[in-house]
């Protein structure tokens, strides 16, 4: 009943308690959580459970936190219980007297080892009541199991599991078994633990702490309104989340909270070499339109999005162990053993005086000449005990961020500052260690071009990142979404990803006819650029303007084209042909005789008030246009009558809209 009390009104100091706290207390929390879908109730149960422990039995807090989060140590330590159905069924048959066949029948019925063990043991009567299990003992035993190695390990594990199961009663059997196979199946416990921990430490201090001398130890709610209490609890939750994102280790966090005021947490548990932080993530955008709308002309860093494995590389030259380099995956597993080549190359990338750092990078399989290979190649590499000399698939590390350098966390610095440090303090090593290819730009044309280049280079798209802190004049919500700092575990609009799978809604290329042009500027001053392109409408026998194109051409092509479309050979016209449907406002400086078919590809087809292609077919008054067209080649095998028709364009438009909707749904699912 105490667990159901309102967390603000409930005072654990008013209840009688004896220690060490029994495991059944934790299991009754799991059972309550299991029976509700209300997140508010779930958080209240876990918060109250933790508050009782914080006040009366602080030594059980950490074990209870680990057991509630379905882990026994931080995931990056790679500690495994290593208990499978073989060990479990041996132990359960032995303590329950059930046959393997009966267990199998239970398993077919329930599909869950916890339920199977519970059913098997529920009717077993013992002569002597076993000593009740307490939380600390359960946790200690689990750590013990994880340390068993070598010959006879399976039997030793089975014995320990048997001992634990014999001491379990009722629901304890179910939850212990689930913990053993790391499948607690208690709704959302993992995430709720962190929030409950924040609330619990906000509301309660361990018994014996001199509350007066440590007035800040827990937050004082005495005279607070409900709103103020909520604000204080929310602040504590944000603090815990921020801390956990940089330092995902309950050992450090809980021990600090047990001995220090909550506001000291970040000072004591912060970014540390050897402890992986939760990576910053990118927001999906489905097309260039949405991307540019989000950027609103801000200059940004466009980086190639390599298709490999994300790695977080930690280096410490003073490491006491012989491991100076550690490599962690996106999900914070320690994958150093998979990459002896990273361990080998990383110390050589440092410039003088670098003693410690944390890098964010994508590791990609590369061919002989440094050509990017597809992702599959890398996933074939074994996860453990890879030997440097036996590696057959070489890799290149593409570094894109630097979060820590020489004892200094860089998270709060802007991307521009972090990137400058990365590029000035490290050396690239050909085909082994490189900075991600990037451009700094706010130009839609350039960003589009860079996207093309990335795809051609074998990447899966681009990451577009905010470089500098947004101006203070913007409202706080927008500013918080466009932070240029490194925000662990957050998916903000300051990192936007644009993937080719989303863009390739318009997979088909188009065959169009060049019908006019403008005189080029700058480098292109002697050539025609941009060039006006058109599709064909067989119903009206008109060439309808579609778009201006200025990318995908080589200088050589421009030169030759100038000769092909000239007065000398009669292809350059002073006035437009009557069968060219072009808006008066567009006014190309020259017109062409229709004679060539060009293959082009674009980002997407949009409704346009300027271009005449398929006018009236998609929109009553407007035509459609192709965004970001790029020239692919001249189709010498095609005649101008073979040009893409306006009707085909209409079909492409609807197909693309349908695919975008699907992509959008996928995005929501994510
Ligand atoms: P995805 O499935 O698109 O790789 P994700 O959910 O794994 O996405 P996101 O953060 O959403 O991760 O997308 C960025 C991912 O792209 C990173 O996790 C990283 O693996 C990869 N990546 C490749 N190049 C870069 C880069 N230059 N900057 C950031 N991430 C990059």
Automatic annotation (TrEMBL):
> Locate the ATP-dependent DNA ligase family profile domain: which residues?
388-537
Q: GO MF terms on file? A: ATP binding; DNA binding; DNA ligase (ATP) activity
Q: What's the main place this protein lives?
A: nucleus
Catalysed reactions, semicolon-separated: ATP + (deoxyribonucleotide)n-3'-hydroxyl + 5'-phospho-(deoxyribonucleotide)m = (deoxyribonucleotide)n+m + AMP + diphosphate
EC number(s) stated in the UniProt entry for this protein? 6.5.1.1
Domain of life where this protein originates: Eukaryota
GO cellular component assignments: nucleus
Q: Which UniProt keywords apply?
A: ATP-binding, DNA damage, DNA recombination, DNA repair, DNA replication, Ligase, Nucleotide-binding, Nucleus
What name does this protein carry?
Answer: DNA ligase
**Parent protein range shown?**
96 to 765 of 792
């Amino acid at each position: 009943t105490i667990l159901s009390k309102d967390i603000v009104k409930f005072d654990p100091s008013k209840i009688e308690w004896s220690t060490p706290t029994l495991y059944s207390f934790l299991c009754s929390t799991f059972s309550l959580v299991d029976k509700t879908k209300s997140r508010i109730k779930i958080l209240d149960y876990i918060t109250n459970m933790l508050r009782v422990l914080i006040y009366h039995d602080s030594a059980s807090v950490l074990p209870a936190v680990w057991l509630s989060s379905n882990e026994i140590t931080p995931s990056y330590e790679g500690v495994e219980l290593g208990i499978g159905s073989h060990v479990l069924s041996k132990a359960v048959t032995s303590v329950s007297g059930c046959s393997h066949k009966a267990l199998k029948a239970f398993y077919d019925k329930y599909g869950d080892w916890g339920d199977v063990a519970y059913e098997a043991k529920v009717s077993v009567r013992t002569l002597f009541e076993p000593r009740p299990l307490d939380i600390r003992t359960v946790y200690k035993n689990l750590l013990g199991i994880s340390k068993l190695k070598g010959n006879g390990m399976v039997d030793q594990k089975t014995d320990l599991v048997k001992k634990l199961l014999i001491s379990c009663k009722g629901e304890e059997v179910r939850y212990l078994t689930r913990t053993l196979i790391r499948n607690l199946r208690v709704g959302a416990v993992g995430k709720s633990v962190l929030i409950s921990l924040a609330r619990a430490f906000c509301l309660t201090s361990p018994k014996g702490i001199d509350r007066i001398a440590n007035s800040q130890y827990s937050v004082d709610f005495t005279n607070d309104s409900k709103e103020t209490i909520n604000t204080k609890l929310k602040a504590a939750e944000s603090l815990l989340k921020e801390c956990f994102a940089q330092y995902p280790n309950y050992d450090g966090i809980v021990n600090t909270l047990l001995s220090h005021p909550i506001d000291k947490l970040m000072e004591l548990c912060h970014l540390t070499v050897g402890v992986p932080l939760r990576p910053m993530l990118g927001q999906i955008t489905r097309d260039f339109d949405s991307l540019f709308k989000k950027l609103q002309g801000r200059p940004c860093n466009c980086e190639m999005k390599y298709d490999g494995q994300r790695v977080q590389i930690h280096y410490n030259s003073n490491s006491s162990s012989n491991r100076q380099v550690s490599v962690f995956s996106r999900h914070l597993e320690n994958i150093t053993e998979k990459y002896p080549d990273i361990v080998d190359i990383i110390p050589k990338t440092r410039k003088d005086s670098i003693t410690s750092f944390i890098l964010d990078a994508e590791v990609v399989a590369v061919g002989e000449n440094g050509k990017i290979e597809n992702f599959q190649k890398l996933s074939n590499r074994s996860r453990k005990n890879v030997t440097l000399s036996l590696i057959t698939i070489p890799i290149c590390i593409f570094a894109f961020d630097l979060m820590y350098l020489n004892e200094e966390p860089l998270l709060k610095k802007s991307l521009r500052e972090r990137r400058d440090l990365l590029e000035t303090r490290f050396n690239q090593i050909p085909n082994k260690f490189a900075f991600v290819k990037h451009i700094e730009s706010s130009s839609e044309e350039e960003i589009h071009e860079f996207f093309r280049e990335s795809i051609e280079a074998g990447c899966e798209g681009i990451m577009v990142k905010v470089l500098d802190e947004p101006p203070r004049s913007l409202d706080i919500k927008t500013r918080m979404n466009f932070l240029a700092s490194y925000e662990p575990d957050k998916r903000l609009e300051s990192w936007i990803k644009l993937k080719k799978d989303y863009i390739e809604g318009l997979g088909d290329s188009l065959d169009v006819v060049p019908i006019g042009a403008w005189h080029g500027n700058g480098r292109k001053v002697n050539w025609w650029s941009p060039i006006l392109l058109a599709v064909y409408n067989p119903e009206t026998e008109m060439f309808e303007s579609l778009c201006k194109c200025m990318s995908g051409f080589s200088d050589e092509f421009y030169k030759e084209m100038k000769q092909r479309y000239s007065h000398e050979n009669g292809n350059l016209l002073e006035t437009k042909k009557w069968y060219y449907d072009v808006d008066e406002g567009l006014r190309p400086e020259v017109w062409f005789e229709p004679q060539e078919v060009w293959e082009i590809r674009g980002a997407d087809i949009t409704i346009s008030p300027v271009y005449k292609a398929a006018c009236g077919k998609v929109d009553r008054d407007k035509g459609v246009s192709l965004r970001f067209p790029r020239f692919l080649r001249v189709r010498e095998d095609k005649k101008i009558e073979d040009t893409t028709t306006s009707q085909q364009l209409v079909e492409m438009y609807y197909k693309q809209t349908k695919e975008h909707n699907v992509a959008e749904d996928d995005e929501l699912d994510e």
